Amino acid sequence: MIKHLLLISSTKELIKESFWLYALVITFYLLFFVAIGSFLNVLIYRLPKKMSIIKKSSHCPLCGYKIKWYENIPIFSYLFLRGRCHHCQEKINIRYVIVEVLGLLVAIVSLIRFDLSYTSIIVTLLLEIFIAIFFIDKDELIIPDSLNIAVAVLGLLSIIMADITSLNHEYTIDYSDKFLSLLVNIIIIGIFYIIQKIIRKPVIGGGDFAADRIIPDCVRAMADGREIAVRNPHSTRPYQHVLEPLGAYLMIAGVQYQDSSKAGSYNVGPGDEDCITTGELANLFCEAWGENAVWKNLYQGGPHEANFLKLDCSRIRSTFGWRSRWHVQDAVRYTVQWYQAWLEGANMAEYTDRQIKEYFR
Asked: How many CB atoms sit inside 10 A of residue 257's CB?
């Protein structure tokens, strides 16, 4: 490993001694990240729509025209085409060139700060992923898991490659510190992964904008002035507000910290009276929303769903005496109020804080 690092360091020193070679490497470096910046537009457009980012070639999202290679040169093609599609002459979203320029800028800043190094490459990739996350979150109010995974992987690589910083810095190797940092990051990533799996239950609550989920689908339909389409109104789910499992997890962790005999796994779910069908949930949503909200059964061959899901929560009830604070009617009402406040432009940080305080009151 040490020999490898010394070889890399020597190679970088040789590159820097030759002005033209150094300039060539810098130029290639910037062109590479300009191309990556252009690819960010593919991620921003396709990931939320669950489209392949590889199979289908670049095309105009309005008319479907297959973009030729010389019409797809970052920044310059937008200027050359005067911001319009070559085929249909419709305006190209200015976001495309903004993303490409931002991709170039972060590459330049990283290069100035870290010189030619693994650190500059990793930092630039991280910043470019954050650009994609920003625009996807801005437009779709979601952050794709694939981008979160990419950030986690780059974070781990930054620890592994931490010894190589820049042409002008010496490196030191402390393998015990590196191993500890790597282990801690892996544990943190694992915890978030487990939490994500736990939370992926039939929970409802404000702030959920994911695709193929009943409440977000209802909200989008109301915002667009459409009827609510329910894929499978007869499927039974243990619906509960997201604060229910989160509150229960905090309570369990606190008790287990004081009494290790309570250690173990516990299902957190509503009582039998709150296990309702998706159609009944849609009825509750329409009642809470008002404004002539209606739904209809419009099965369109969506994702497979089991007809009946229920959790055995007897252990958490017998051990801790835990019960749901909000029944499903309350959960739907508070959820609807959150989305209506969001649509009205309320301060959602303050509004969410009030709902949390009301839940724990």
From this structure: 10
